[in-house]
């Protein structure tokens, strides 16, 4: 059986929409997921986004940790070039303790030009920043003194999970996959071909193989009437798809997202499946062992009542 997670990125493009209500709903939905035995909650991070995309996932994660006892808290992705790795190590160590050892983290290099401009980071340095930053986080979580950028560093307390919380890396290129093989526990991608570079590099390094996990499309919804449900949620789905599409185009990167105007064509692409209950069960089972699928109940500021119905 696949693991099911709730995903929150807190986009809220509607002018005048109740931000407080959306954040409160995310916390309530996470508590529901905890009670129902879902695997976890996944938080995303982006900056300089006019629609309010979540810029501080650890803060929301801490609020949800206080309302839950079992669900895993996955940060996918934390954009390392825009964060101090020592502070990230400290914050996640404390959250791992207060949550009872439930933190998982996926680190990414970022790709949106506006974010690099906002933080004054040279995008050409992404690979070097990732190499240095991941090494610093792992050294920090050892609890021992180490040197970071020529300075003495010490991070305590240590995380509850040892030797450290699950540490993955994400990306969309073969180079990112090979980097992840050297530095992390897993490469977070829905692309089997790019994952192959991660697997090959681990083999070259003499490391144990790690099975590919089917992540689906990042969205799925369940309804007794998929046609009616699609009509109701299409504006929210179009906003998300087009927002990612514009970011990808601005960075000239390959992506599963492109700007579209035809909701019917987007539905036909399969990127946003809306299924009847039995179809959803079949879809989940077809993903195979180790799959991890995401529900996105507040996609693009969708009213919480619709998310609760799904």
Summarize the structure.
By secondary structure, the chain is α/β, with parallel strands linked by helices. It has helices at 19-36, 57-67, 85-98, 113-119, 126-140, 174-183, 192-204, 226-251, 263-268, 277-286, 304-309; strands spanning 3-8, 40-43, 72-79, 103-108, 146-148, 151-153, 167-170, 186-188, 221-222, 274-275, 292-295.
Question: How do the helices and strands line up, and which of them pair or pack?
Answer:
Blueprint: E1 3-8, H1 19-36, E2 40-43, H2 57-67, E3 72-79, H3 85-98, E4 103-108, H4 113-119, H5 126-140, E5 146-148, E6 151-153, E7 167-170, H6 174-183, E8 186-188, H7 192-204, E9 221-222, H8 226-251, H9 263-268, E10 274-275, H10 277-286, E11 292-295, H11 304-309
Parallel strand pairs: 1-2, 1-11, 2-3, 3-4, 4-7, 7-8, 9-10
Antiparallel strand pairs: 5-6
Helix pairs in contact: 1-2, 2-3, 3-5, 6-7
Description:
The protein is of the alpha/beta class and 310 residues long. The chain has helices at 19-36, 57-67, 85-98, 113-119, 126-140, 174-183, 192-204, 226-251, 263-268, 277-286, 304-309, and strands at residues 3-8, 40-43, 72-79, 103-108, 146-148, 151-153, 167-170, 186-188, 221-222, 274-275, 292-295. It is globular, with a radius of gyration of 19 Å. The two termini are 20 Å apart.
Mean pLDDT: 95
Helix content: 40-55%
Broad shape = globular
Strand order of the largest sheet: 8-7-4-3-2-1-11
What is the first-to-last residue Cα distance? 20 Å
Unreliable parts? none
The helix-and-strand class reads alpha/beta
In DSSP terms, counting alpha (H) and pi (I) runs of 4 or more, how many helices?
Answer: 11
**Number of strand elements:** 11
The value of Rg in angstroms is: 19 Å
